[in-house]
């Protein structure tokens, strides 16, 4: 049975639909008169950017654009943006782009509201109070950052990326317009979608915890719960039904819309339910190989599901039945295997590699990667099957060989 406990953390306003980017001017004007827009060089050069700036101006909003957002969000880039915009003193910060742009908006808002090293806030519940309102406008379907309490950055003093997790970082407003994803190339659509699916599956199969009145105020990730389950299962159904089409036919607005909705649902799911082993392991793998987050997640997810079978069979079986990979007459073990096979099959069809060798991981680095994975404590302890360095190494070994591992007792 699912736990009779639920937590949802979400923006004050969540607006979804084709063309809804045109609500940005009014939404920003409701919150302030000076807006900093955090985006990247590619998006800033598109005609739609001029339309967005004209909409802000028409609503009496003065806008300054920072178009220097870098992939994987290095600390230096965040500090550069803060230095450039401090004199402008924005009332509102808009994150317009992929996950890095939205995370930049969150962290710039945090820095402006609570000056000092960002390292003061690494971890959970270390943001001392409200930040300037953030409006998140995603242009990819994957991170779910538009609705989550998490921002991730690359600090050169740390071996791998670090997170700041606090409900204070949830954007005030999320505007999800699938038309903005139409120019997203197939490869990025695939790995972004894999990340979204991992958010949903890992949240749905997260550790259930005994509810206490203060858990939601002391843990960002409370584990499996009835509200995150609702969003996770809806996300999984949408992504299985539409992601392959969105990758193959990027101009299919209906498919793009359903994938974006699935990504947003996944963000709402893991914003309280949390993620697990695939995300914990990807952080050091990504740092080692300098590869995109979603790519590593897509490779690792089926192997972490294999590892988790003994602890998460019921959840995986429910997923299999929800997506039509198993019928009501199939046993739990059979349906569980069908879910894992369905994930592998979908990822293969959208072009995600099946082995860590394909992104440059070497056998002699597995022990070090396993140890580093354990430092993502909030993810490790959220995994349904207990994780230790030996268990993580077994996952890495299977993923390196490109072969499922045997059942884990």
TrEMBL record:
CDD domains: Fe-ADH-like. Residues 11-178 form the Alcohol dehydrogenase iron-type/glycerol dehydrogenase GldA domain. Residues 189-399 form the Fe-containing alcohol dehydrogenase-like C-terminal domain. Pfam families: ADH_Fe_C, Fe-ADH. Its cofactor is Fe cation. This is Iron-containing alcohol dehydrogenase. Belongs to the iron-containing alcohol dehydrogenase family. It comes from Aureimonas flava. The keyword Oxidoreductase applies. Keywords: Oxidoreductase. The keyword Oxidoreductase applies. It catalyses: a primary alcohol + NAD(+) = an aldehyde + NADH + H(+). One of its GO terms (molecular function) is alcohol dehydrogenase (NAD+) activity.
């Amino acid at each position: 049975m699912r736990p009779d406990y639920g937590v949802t953390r979400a923006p004050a306003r969540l607006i979804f639909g084709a063309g809804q980017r045109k609500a940005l001017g009014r939404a920003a004007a409701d919150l302030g008169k000076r807006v900093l827009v955090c985006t990247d060089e590619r998006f800033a050069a598109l005609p739609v950017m001029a339309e967005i700036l004209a909409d802000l101006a028409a609503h009496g909003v003065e806008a300054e654009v920072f178009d220097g957002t870098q992939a994987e969000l290095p600390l230096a880039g965040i500090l550069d943006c803060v230095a450039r915009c401090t004199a402008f003193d924005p009332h509102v910060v808009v994150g317009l782009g992929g996950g890095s742009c939205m995370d930049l908006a969150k962290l710039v808002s945090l820095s402006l509201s609570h000056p000092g090293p960002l390292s003061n806030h690494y971890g959970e519940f270390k943001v001392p109070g409200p930040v300037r309102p953030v409006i998140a406008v995603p242009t990819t379907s994957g991170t779910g950052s538009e609705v989550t309490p998490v921002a991730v950055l690359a600090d050169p003093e740390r071996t791998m990326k670090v997170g700041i997790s606090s409900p204070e970082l949830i954007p005030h407003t999320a505007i999800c317009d699938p038309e903005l994803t139409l120019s997203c190339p197939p490869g990025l659509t695939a790995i972004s979608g894999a990340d979204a699916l991992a958010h949903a599956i890992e949240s749905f199969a997260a550790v259930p915890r005994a509810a206490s009145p203060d858990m939601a105020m002391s843990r960002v990730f409370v584990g499996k719960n009835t509200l995150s389950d609702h969003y996770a299962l809806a996300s999984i159904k949408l992504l299985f039904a539409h992601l392959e089409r969105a990758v193959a036919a990027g101009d299919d607005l209906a498919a793009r819309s359903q994938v974006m909705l699935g990504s947003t649902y996944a963000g709402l799911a893991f914003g309280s339910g949390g993620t697990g082993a695939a995300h914990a392991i990807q952080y050091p793998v990504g740092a080692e190989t300098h590869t995109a987050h979603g790519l590593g997640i897509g490779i690792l997810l089926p192997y972490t599901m294999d590892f988790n079978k003994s602890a998460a069979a019921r959840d995986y079986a429910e997923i299999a039945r929800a997506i039509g990979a198993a019928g009501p007459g199939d046993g739990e073990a059979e349906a569980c295997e069908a879910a894992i096979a369905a994930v592998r099959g979908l990822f293969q069809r959208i072009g995600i590699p099946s082995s860590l060798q394909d992104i440059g991981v070497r056998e002699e680095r597995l022990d070090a990667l396993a140890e580093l994975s354990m430092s993502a404590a909030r993810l490790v302890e959220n995994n349904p099957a207990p994780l230790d360095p030996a268990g993580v190494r077994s996952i890495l070994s299977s993923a390196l060989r490109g072969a499922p591992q045997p059942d884990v007792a």
